[in-house]
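Box 3.1 A note on notation
Throughout this textbook, protein chains are presented in two layers. The first layer is the amino acid sequence; the second is a token string describing backbone geometry. Keep the layers aligned when reading.
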Amino acid sequence: RRSSNKDHILLFLSVVMQVALVFLHYVMAFMMQGIITAPMLYAMEEFPQLQDVVDQGFDNPANVEIALDYLQKSRGIERTKELAQEHVNLAVKAIEALPDSDDEDVLISRRALIDITQRVITRTK
């Protein structure tokens, strides 16, 4: 059976949802430790009232729920991904700016460094 565009779209949406859930899991884990990450900082920029919730801490499950609700309404995760992509692009440019070399080990190492930068932003676990 040949894959249709619909199959590709469904697969893409499935992967996007998986990544979003993993991302939310990490944000929530950090929140519970009192660590405010970039997605939450961006959400607070969009929704200043979120600052009060953050200041109260996350011992109260209601605060966690409120914060996650604001996070999902915001562009916090999207902006964090954009920021990560900007840093990946800068890292790749820095690697590509290194002096030329014909040494196979150097070429393999540089390719590995570039691959790592891509994995950082596409990982799902």
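The two ends are 31 Å apart (CA to CA). The mean pLDDT is 81.
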